[in-house]
Amino acid sequence: MRQGEISLAGLLALFSLYLMYKSTELPIGYISGQGPGGGFWPFWLSVGMLLSCSGIAWNWWRGLSPASKSEEPLMDAFGWRTVALVGGGVVAFVALIPIVSMYGAISLFLIYYLLFLGRHSWLLTLVIAILLPIALFLFFEGAMYISMPQGLPFTQPLFDMMYDIIY
User: Fold this and answer.
1) Is 92 helix (H, G, I), strand (E, B) or coil?
2) Which residue(s) pair with 31 in the sheet?
């Protein structure tokens, strides 16, 4: 467990540095009249991730976290099964984006995650799986002017309806 904690923190720190570097190929500041530059969100989220990794490494070095004191194996059979189920869901989510759009893929992933993995009720699952993609659509397409992948042509009528609402 101890080795896994610092290894993952180091790997994520390197990944965040790479993302920060790549983000600077686009403007990372606010562009007057347009909103945040193309690299704004990736850069600043990567800064946050790097700071979090630094905090994890600091706690590991000082032996403050339970994992930094543990000699247990990183994961048991239940842990590996959970990683496979969640990881498989994420792979399916990414594969569905070009077919059912970013928002449709988010909705389907939420149904899978909340209903099947989380064992929540249909009511809660459907409320979140419908409202969250709508809120994300309004945020990205309406407020930020950032278009997400719209999938195959059968999704276009839904997007047309949503664009009519925000414009």
Assistant:
1) helix
2) 35
What's the token pair of residue 92? Answer: 């399916």
The C-alpha atoms of residue 141 and residue 151 are separated, in whole angstroms, by 15
Q: Quick check: pTM over 0.85?
A: no
Residues 124, 125, 126, 132, CA torsion sign: positive
Question: Which residue matches tokens 């609402």?
Answer: 165
Strands annotated E in the chain: 30-31, 35-36
Q: What angle do CA 142, 148, 150 make, to 5 degrees?
A: 110
Q: How far apart are alpha carbons 56 and 46 in whole angstroms?
A: 15
Q: Decide: helix, strand or coil at residue 86.
A: helix
Token representation of residue 42: 């990736």
Name the token pair of 65.
Answer: 């976290």
> Model confidence over 21-64: pLDDT tens digits?
999 999 999 888 888 999 999 999 999 999 999 999 999 999 98
Is residue 161 packed enough to be buried (19+ CB in 10 Å), middle (13-18) or exposed (0-12)?
Answer: exposed
Angle at 90 between CA 148 and CA 4, to 5 degrees: 125
Mark out the alpha helices in 111-154 (DSSP H runs).
Answer: 122-137
